Structure prediction request, 573 residues.
Amino acid sequence: MIANHPVERADALVVGAGIAGLQAALDLADQGFQVVIVERQPSIGGHMINLSKVFPTLDCASCITTPRMASTAHHPNIQVFTYSEVDSIRPVGDRFQATITRKPRYIDEDKCIGCKRCEEACTVYLPDEYDHSLGAKKAVSIPFTNAIPQYPVLDMDECFLCGGCARACPTDAIDYLQKPETFQLEVGAVILATGYDMTPMDAKSQYGGGKLPNVISPWQAERLLAPHGPYGGVLRPSDGKIPDSIAFVQCAGSRDASLGVPYCSRVCCMYAIKQAMLLSGSLPIADITIYYMDIRAFGKGYEQFYQSAKAMGIEFVKAKVGRIREDEEHNPILRIERQEGDSAPEEVRHDLVILSLGMVPAWIPDRDGIVPLQTGSDRFLLSPKPRISPTLTTLPGVFACGAATGPKDIVDTIVEAGAAAMQAAAHLQRTLAGAAK
Amino acid sequence: MKDPDQYKILILTTNISSYPGANTVGQARLQYSPGTSILRVPDPVMFPEEFYLNAFRKGVDGIIVMSSGSDCPYEGAYRRLSARIQRVYKRMKEEGIDPSRLKLTTICTVCKAAFLKEIAEMQQNLQKLEEAAAKA
Prediction:
């Protein structure tokens, strides 16, 4: 259920409501445990609800995520706190004391009926973070159409308090004076499903430092390809032109010590191949090139997926891209050095370039002392037994799953979420049995 | 000629994909014809051929079957559904009902534009049929 009021006690706390957190919470709740989910975004669903399709089956990402979101939001054993932060988790005997802050939406959730009148009345337009700034949203808005819960969030930094939304609201739900609300929660086990972020677009000055309009992130490419994307088709941001020549730059944020990301992010090869296939579907005459160091197609059906992309005419060029600049029409120009054949550097012009950014942890609990546990040199959560128990953390009773423990695709994330839920269930049974004695 | 919104269009949707899609259209405040009736079922494959013919006999102008397509959770259901729709087409021809009054399509949970397009196309198609009938 969507929780609008603090809860004092539960069996388990799941931090994060992406696909990992949803799966872990459902697996625990289906066994009868009372679960609290804390999600910092205004809607559950995580990154996956943002994607167009998933590899290698090209299923609709939203269609797989939406039923899990709905099951979670309606599960009698789950309480979901969205737009909330975990301030700290401390072990107390066998159990944990968590401090959680509900951030103000400036909306009274008990009164709001999700009618969007406030959004219609608002006159302030802001970049839409759900569309990764390709579209616009209002200063008071429901994050996206199939968001759960359907509560708007008012951006107090950008609102100029014109009062339009408050006048339009039929239930008097706008509360400009709402304050953050902090509460304590006692739980028996914790699952960290805090997910990933991507290396920033401006991390590499060689790749334009995030300033070239037609060099976009893979998240933006997902939005362009989604059926409910910002432009209703694949158009390049600078001038709305349909791109004829599109390039992917692989390892643009991974295997790069200069970014502090020496590891392989595992999914970039596959998402680039997937996006290239979808692009060739929506732009059949466009030339699509993938500049890569190595193609790592490790999962079930992934190699076949790569081979079918090649068969579809997507060009794979083994080359490292050294620099990206642009001409006066904002066409990106890539300086590349081929690793096969002629090794002389050359410059290639494209209409649109997608940087295959790497994965970094979204939440580093030991940095701010939120949870007293250890992370590895890559900043992902560390397991004391990474080979046989990858979902353990250095704090007994706290488990981790999904991209919180390292770069991972959706399939592995879901499997690991189930494993973490089982470990947490076993831990809860053990501590309950101990308490009974 | 009728106003396009007066055509009775029956839409069969699936629990997993096209009904949430219709929901998304509503949540996005996008408007579509009040002449539509949306039925929500696990999968339309369960409706016998007679259902479609009865619907046309009772005054439904057009039927859009919005399936889950490749996202369908029921194994083999989509293949059987398309085979069944083929049989319906055959019977429609036998009874003199224009086959374009029935359409099988796939709508996902976020296919807002495609959902509206299917309805608009069906309305245009029904108008054409009405024009042709008036000429005849």
